[in-house]
Fold:
Amino acid sequence: MRPPLPPFTEETARLKVRLAQDAWNTRDPEQVALAYTEDSEWRNRDVFLTGRDEIVAFLADKWRRELDYRLRKELWAFTGDRIAVRFAYEYHDTAGQWFRAYGNENWEFDPNGLMRKRFAGINDVPIAAPSARIPV
Structure:
């Protein structure tokens, strides 16, 4: 079980978004992957993944390239077992160039509160330096 569980209310949807944000900000692929079903389906930009093992490998590679990653998520909409979020995150590459990434995610959960589908569209913008507060 991964509370809060569907069907979501505004309060539980906001909590689910906050918990996801906090988990991703740990940059721990194993911890993050525990929020997804064993056979979870992902689209992340142009990458399609299935299952926790692929999620862990993807996130480990992501955070090797995206250094000092900081994420902010915001609830966009919810209904039943689905949540939509918008987000922004900042990171820099090994050359020291900073980026801000903006995107939207659509999530679908199983009855135990594990995410079974995650579809993300993301765009990166080079920036001069990280911000004190990431604008969403």
Notes: The longest helix spans residues 10-24.
